[in-house]
Fold each of these.
Amino acid sequence: MAEETIVLRVQRYRPEQDSDPYFQDYEVPYRKDWVVLDALNWIKEYKDGTLSFRWSCRMGVCGSCGMMVNGRPRLTCNTFLREFYPNPITVEPLVNFDIERDLVICMDTFLEKLKKVKPWIIRREVKSPEEGPYNQTPAQLYRYKQFSMCINCMLCYAACPVVGMHPEFLGPAALALGVRYLLDSRDQGWNERMEEVGSHEGVWGCTFVGECSEVCPKHVDPAAAIQQGKVLATLDWFKRWLMPWGQK
Amino acid sequence: MRRPYHRSYPKDWWLRHPHYRRFMLRELTSVFVAYFAFWTICLLFQASRGPEQLAAFLTTMRKPGWLIWHAIGLLAVLFHTYTWFETAPKVLAVRIGEKRVPDRVIVGAQWVAFVVVAAVFFALLRLAG
Ligand code: SF4
Ligand code: FES
């Protein structure tokens, strides 16, 4: 019996020689237990060593392998070929990012946005190690825990039409992370963080399409984080203007 | 060598997935919310001009064209309401201790409130005769 195969239509772009991206078809062995990333690795190993793509963990934790699979942002390490077999599978780099090479995107814009929300704990009163940790009750932890599960895979950026139309929008993952720190009882950087999170490019840029939460492989629900961020920003605004003496 | 390739965002993005189309429908149906608010102002204005004017206005509103138009509007507003009730749990993460109140409870509570408010409203209308 001839081996079953499936066709991968892969978008290529080699900056040295191609002026525009184009599609290249590869016929790959079909295995029920193969994911799209396995097929790409097979191509790289046996067919075409010039094909570039990013991956690392192969188990949905590193967030490197996000690509457009048949037009949807997916982690290629947990997207099985059997979902599409026998139809061909189109693989493109994540949309809403510039293309570095083949399936590799430029993540510079994303990293800039992440930095803007200051995703670390800001303390005004710093404890020395001898004084012990900053304690937190389980209830305080659960306020933000879900929003801290992000793996920076950027699928939500590819899903978001606002990111596509307004590149300055901070976007789902960065805002979810900003809100995660706003909700953290150990954090004391509320004002400086709110300046970014509560800005026009921040939560107020969001029109609540909600697609970020649909595609998120970690159920971070960035759309929820952003809407809760809008509530926090509104309360903050009232506090600033109605009770300027009540500033923390 | 770095030569990043820039892709422009497609103008027809909202046609490209059912979720995007649904979002557009949600946004467009909000126009009817504004419309009915405006219509209510018109109704109050006619009422302020006296009983005859109000009666004339209401007779016009009973014409089939208006009834069909408002039936479409009602469907649109109900759909809009439905979409916002569904998304409310994302905005209101209600917690009791460590547990989050399930989304269904929040959505359900809104529908209960909706029915109660509507019932009170219609009861008052009845009373007013
Ligand atoms: S929020 Fe979800 S989809 Fe967005 S980068 Fe984080 S893990 Fe990926
Ligand atoms: S390879 Fe790590 S998430 Fe897919």
Amino acid sequence: MVIGPFDLNALEVAVRLKERYGAQVTALTLGSGKAKDALRRALAMGADAAVLVDDGQMAPKEPSVATRALAAAVRKLGGLDLVLCGRQSGEWDFGQVGALLAEELGMPFVPFVPRLEASGDGWRLEREVEGGLLVVDVSGPCVASITNATDNQPRLPKVKDIMMANRKPIQVWGPVELGLGEEDVGEAANRLEVLELFIPEVKSECEFVEGDDGAAKGAALARKLWDRKVI
Amino acid sequence: MFELSAEDLNLSAEQKEVLAMIREFARREVRPAVKEYEPGDRYPHPLVDRMKELGLFGLTIPEEYGGAGLDHVTYALVFEELSAAWMSIAGVLGTHSIMAYVIARYGTEEQKQRFLPRMAAGELRGGLALTEPEAGSDVASIRTRARREGDAYVLNGVKTFITNSRHGTGLLVLAKTDPGAPKPSRGMSAFVFEHSGEVPGFTVRRDIPKLGYKGLDTCEIAFEDVRVPAENLVGGVEGEGFKQVMSGLEVGRINVAARAVGVARAALDDALRYSQQRVAFGKPIGRHQAIQQLLADAYAQIEAARQLVLFAARKKDRGERADLEAGAAKLFASEMCGRVTLDMMRVLGGYGYTTDFDLERYYRDAPLMIIGEGTNEIQRMVIANRLLEKYAL
Ligand SMILES: Cc1cc2nc3c(=O)[nH]c(=O)nc-3n(C[C@H](O)[C@H](O)[C@H](O)COP(=O)(O)OP(=O)(O)OC[C@H]3O[C@@H](n4cnc5c(N)ncnc54)[C@H](O)[C@@H]3O)c2cc1C
């Protein structure tokens, strides 16, 4: 069990913030008992605590359901200044958890963040936008989804931290601890179903436009384009 | 591509994580650096600094002395991983770990506290100084002399082929304290010698140019009236050095065998990739039976060697005597590595012989495992003598 690539970037950003300002970093994941391996890596990289939301009694098949469970855990943790997540998961790449989490928690959401720093009583975040960067200020806590950048490459854990990580407790919470019912995270809560996964076929063909001279070829080309509604 | 699977090895979460980290370190940092340092025989200082940071120098040092206290199975697998990327990098840790083992096992409590935490931090980076110009396999005939003078021992002698002696900061030196001992092996003692700064009388005389194992310092060193504090005599009692060092070599043989597995594995890995890409006579060469024979034999031999390494390591972890098993692993794995690297070069054809590919490096590095840490001829003697002793009529 490994951590998704962007989640590793998010973790790195969190640990750097901790090193800079001093903080308590909690790694949170939703999954089966196997996900504890991933949480141990997070602890070895510098997280102070780890929480596994055990999905054994849940059916988090779509992001909204998964997020409901995660949001309940975030609320239970309480007193947070910042919630970071990866830009998208390493499996389905839905890229929704950050936004949905912000909605559930009633916090502002900033996506595609490569780096951020403390500012006033909140945060100053850089956000990647088409062809550039956008800088935003948020007062109070927010949710940010982290994208990869050269300055947030996940660090390798040290041997001793790996050993320590294996001795730290990992909290495990199920629907009971989180106060979630069947209607929140059960089978029936899922309304989205993936029907098919496929790689679209891209076809290309090549056609030579015939004609006696340039003008005739030009006219023939124009006709073809007209027929295909290109012009 | 062709990596060992942690699942098959029944590793603990801790062992798996350490290995995963080492593998990432090898892939992200070691591999890309090889071409920078190996061809010019340059010491990879930045990589060594990173190994310090990651805590690799303390891998097997007990936790109460600042190390990670890992077992020999993990130790072997780490050496395999590092060697699959670059054997020389494993060399930085090799004799250092033997020195640490000897201190941890035979040192006095005061010595353990004085040396091990600094060794674990990679501040005191050690090596092993046994071999001399006139004494290689025949360790008992060394001439380096240690004479007690007040609160110090005065060392005189020349050691050669000493890995980590230029860039390291310490050595475990084997010297004669009683040259007249009826049993020469009982007249030797081991000393912890530190040389992080200038030490009067100690010189690194020459860097020995070599076929492979490049980037790493293997030197001839000299001691001329070098004073070593008496409290650096390992265990505090004279005459124990030979036994202490030989026990350390048991661990050394596990590490050399693991390195051989790593290098051979890297060679097979490259050959597997190449044989699917290179086409000859209308098909990928991997589909030609002659190439398949080479690949299959390589795989079987590598796995067999790895099992021998793990067998010895597990025995050691149970606290049992493992000289027979470590010797067998070293003998088999190193000979295997020599054969496999040449065979994989055959798979790559002319390209395998060029420095554009890594294979020629594996091929150049392989013979060291046959010769170092006790030649295979000596290994066979040790194994046979042990068998005759164990199963004596
Ligand atoms: C790159 C490199 C790094 C090294 N690093 C270190 C180090 O860090 N510290 C250290 O102390 N040493 C180190 N060595 C030395 C190494 O351990 C010796 O080279 C090795 O033990 C063999 O000794 P020798 O070279 O003197 O060979 P010799 O002992 O002279 O042997 C020559 C040949 O004779 C054979 N032979 C010898 N005796 C017998 C016998 N009784 N029966 C049958 N055959 C025999 C040997 O197997 C060999 O084939 C290193 C060597 C190399 C090449």
Amino acid sequence: MADNKGILVVGEIAEGKLAPITAEALGAGRRLADELKEELSCILIGDKVGDAAKAAVAAGADKVYTTEDAALKDYENDAYMQVAEKAAKDLAPRIILLGQTSMGRDLAPRLAFRLGVSAVMDCLELAIDGATKQLLCTRPVYGGNAKATFSSEALPQIATVRQKAMSPLAPDAGRQGQIAAFPVAIDAGKVRAKVLETVKEEVAGVKLEDAGAVVAGGRGMGGPEPFTKELAELAKILKGAVGASRPPCDNKWVPDTIQIGLTGKIIAPELYIAVALSGSSQHMSGCSGSKCIVAINKDPEANIFKEARVGVVGDWKVILPAFTQRIKELTQ
Amino acid sequence: MNMIVCCKQVLDPEAAPATFKLDAANNRMVQPPEVKPVINPYDEQAVEAALRIKDTDKAAHKVTVITLGNNLIRDVVKKPLSMGADELILLEDAAFEGGDGFAVASALAAAIKKVGQFDLIFCGRQESEWDDGQVGSGIAEILGVPSVTVAKKVEVAGGQVKVERVTADGFQKLEASMPCLITVSNELGEARYATLKGIMAASKKQPIVWKPADIGLDKVGAAARKTKVVKLFQPVKEGKCEIISDDDLKVAAGKLADKLREYKVI
Ligand SMILES: Cc1cc2nc3c(=O)[nH]c(=O)nc-3n(C[C@@H](O)[C@H](O)[C@H](O)COP(=O)(O)OP(=O)(O)OC[C@H]3O[C@@H](n4cnc5c(N)ncnc54)[C@H](O)[C@@H]3O)c2cc1C
Ligand SMILES: Cc1cc2nc3c(=O)[nH]c(=O)nc-3n(C[C@H](O)[C@H](O)[C@H](O)COP(=O)(O)OP(=O)(O)OC[C@H]3O[C@@H](n4cnc5c(N)ncnc54)[C@H](O)[C@@H]3O)c2cc1C
């Protein structure tokens, strides 16, 4: 595949709009494409692509391909693979980027193996090696305790990008780009796993991903009540959201969807208040991009104090009420 | 039914971050000898998923575990046997070292082919060292079977496998034909403890050991990889946390709030 050229972003549509992660991948892709002096394209797959195609142009794509089919309503790898494989072969890009999302973490490896290459997952940084034009992918390893930079000679190079790790371009509605249909006849007979039902478990209130302030509790909260009382009260005053480390989710104190970390949500709020969680590297992978991390923990040796900007050592049961009271006074 | 579970021996991911040290010469991290390796936690849950199916009819279902590595510690890799798995196959050889996800998936797929009979293959959603999460999908692709990743519930009914797949804002219910590969996430619930009886049985059981030639591969490990590690490094943390203290913890709590105002984050 010596003639592979350009960068292809396999995009996602969320609630009818271009997903933020796709704008981020396009932002990263634009920088790489400019450096390579090659084209940046984007493929959008779904039952209806709609205005997301225009948004992808505004976010940096030179070309947007759209594949629409009722069979592509929900993500399922056998169906989406038919599109991704055809795009990889017909468009022959040098680099394929996806988001590290429910779809990307499932589709990228399968596509890579089908094409006889290996993907690099969950990248924090992407760069081009000037001499070889190879993509250099830097990603966390050992649960975030180290980072590694990977490269490969085989083309296409496939990578997924971590949410909120790359900056999107400011959307420019005046940007010129082509939008073209990329029709694929989906062979339903090849779809071996069928989606029977999609269940949403959204929590009420401010969305964790969008919140400017997040109050997160860990195993040391001791049970479900403090999440709906003390932590929720503080989050409400800060107009933010409640999050959790993994043990409260595993223990069913809180819904799985509010887990923050390597295998949960990746967030980067202005303010992150970590209560009774130790700050494991896997947890910090999901919140280390926060502008200000505050730690409340009874163990002065807890790793969270290596990550936080400011904190208090002690029992949250004593600290939190007084802290919340003072925050209330200050913000009213 | 024949079920296969792929389990990797890893450094203990729950150990304090400070125990992880860079071995730059070998492009990997190491832990001091007092920190014992473990079975990748998600892989224990993959074993659990298989055992829950086996529980429905112990005589009808067989669970075979495959572990790839070198100098594997017997007490560690035998844990799935003590939980109730039937058979353990080790792909153990120096040649298996230095492989990437591609090399590992190729070797595991070759071993599964050699086992021959399989209805379900289970992997963890990712292993805790390189956290890549592609070996499962890779095995499925090589074997030409469907895959459902990040599962929290797996049941078999009417010749089909029913899976609940975790998504960012909930889950999907899927139904797939078998054979099928499933990667398991922690939402499945805790893996069972080894019973005393299980530990006794496991200690008597000898794992089957296969070399690269046994699975018909001449290129494995470093020789079979598609990616290379250009650099492995440990980012330096500034770690300058300002600890607010006071004889009265409540006063310290108030001062903490004042600090946030000073930082202009509230
Ligand atoms: C270029 C490169 C060089 C490397 N060199 C070394 C090295 O020298 N030494 C070293 O120890 N590691 C090395 N690694 C790590 C590598 O061998 C990983 O173990 C391999 O890539 C699989 O990890 P993963 O994160 O891709 O697995 P994932 O895709 O995250 O694993 C998913 C699941 O696959 C199964 N699985 C994965 N690996 C195994 C296994 N070994 N046995 C049984 N089941 C398994 C498990 O069910 C696991 O939960 C290297 C990696 C790369 C990319
Ligand atoms: C591959 C992999 C992926 C993972 N992904 C994630 C992930 O996405 N997100 C995640 O969070 N974890 C993840 N984990 C788990 C992670 O390794 C840790 O086990 C987990 O983050 C620990 O949660 P914790 O800090 O709440 O619990 P602990 O580590 O048990 O910490 C509890 C803390 O509470 C403090 N405490 C207790 N009581 C009080 C009190 N009364 N007042 C004040 N402080 C108190 C203690 O001092 C302690 O520091 C993953 C693990 C693996 C192996």
Amino acid sequence: MKEKNKKRIYLDHAAGAPLDKRVKKAMEPYFMDVFGNPNAIYKEGLEAREALDSARGTVAEVLGAKADEIIFTSGGTESDNLAILGVANEVKQFYGAGGKFASLRTDKTGNSTEVKLSSSSSPSPHIITTKFEHPAVLNACKVLEKSGFAATYLDVGKDGVVNPKDVAKALRANTVLVTIMYANNEIGTVQPIREIAKVIRKFRKAGNGKAISGYPFFHTDACQAPGYLDFNVERLGVDMLTLNGSKIYGPKGSGVLYMKRGIKIIPMMHGGEQEKGLRPGTENVAGIVGFAAALALCEREKERETKRLTALRDYLIKNVLNKISKTSLNGSATERLPNNANITFLDAEGEAIILYLDNEGIACSTGSACNSANLEPSHVITALGKPHEHAHGAVRFTLGRNTTKKDIDFVLKVLPGIVGKLRSFSPTSII
Amino acid sequence: MADVDKWVYSNIVKDHFMHPRGFLVGAPKEGEFDAEGEVGSPACGDIIRIWIKVDKATDRIKDIKWQTWGCATAIASASAFVEMIMKNGDMKIDEALKITPTEIAEYLGGLPSRKFHCSILADKAFKKAAENYRANQ
Ligand code: FES
């Protein structure tokens, strides 16, 4: 039914961005020419090692971190799990069966330091996160709850922005980790990471009654941030940060976990000494090189792209809201990524809208229950306090490097007709 | 049924979805139909409504129309169901009641397994409409 060769307008960059040509070029030598195992000490190995070191240096520089704070992984999901489960499994040993002393640790200088458990009555280690995290974070937290951890899922308000005061209120003596995303992947709302980091630092310093000194750590899933937001870890004040290659015009299957020096985690996989033993397995050299190139490009083009896409995004939002009745923007209009427009069309169902748009050559996504494997409406839209009907007609447009004003104009041309058609045979009239 | 595990729609589903037949635009006119039935999907929250006009003497369905607020499959199922009833002239209510969701799915050239529940909606809404019709006789 679809005409072949019809121009496609791809507006689902939050799901995955195409590999940038320049990134592909940077990766090319590392498939066949430089193929050695970076852990070998002969020429082929050394060449691969050099590429790896240089990529690590690039990533560290962009993040404002040290090279040994960068762990290469297979993507955002792995980085999130490594951070959350890694910290959890590390602290678990201090919470041994009823014991007051659970473990001995060594500090940076190699001296033994006793870690004491407070004798407080609620001994479960505690994690704070939000209701609208990516499933990689939410499901990791749920797994921990099953194994005896306590978890707080913070509300995000109707704007989709976490209030740092709520974080302060949720902190407990035995909170070991706070994990809050930098920008939401569905509605693009940007979280006040710096302010939250300040709250946590202050709490950490206070020390009073703290179960384990030095905790809690602050992790953020920043997969959607590169190219738009500042993710210098010093300025942000985070202890751990997740990045994903496929969202930044890099290769799929590549990712990074930034982890501040001094933090200890238990790895999820056990094997060789790669990535300091925290992520064993022969390094994905081409992927790592591609990741670093992609991240550097995002950083270089950040200012220009942010300006360009913010204008396009606002143009799209304004016109959709003006041209089509019973529509609303999901999440704050200002505290949001420059490339994200998430709009609800009442009385029309999201999956149907997506497929009609697909037929016109436009790709985007929806929070509708009909489009999810478990038939649940988007937990993100629901977290905004909106009823199910809003998630049902929520459509996410995420713009990218190749998006032009012409593309947006085409969307604006076909969208009213599509929504109108679906509404024409809808029995509902939601107010 | 083909494609049961794949997230792919058959061309027949696509055709019914892109060019749905037999739906009602807006509210029905006075006396246009004899009964209506509505169901909401407990699974995903969708709603489908079906109206029927019946010939009293013969118990045959003279007209049947639908509206749905739902996914592509819900739209296609409603469209296909109405087509199945109307394609060979007017069908008796009893005959129409025998149409199963599996038959609707087959008529559509198969449905992805996680979309099968949408084909149940059309069937259920019709059963309600038929019940309502009988109750008023
Ligand atoms: S009607 Fe919701 S999934 Fe089909």
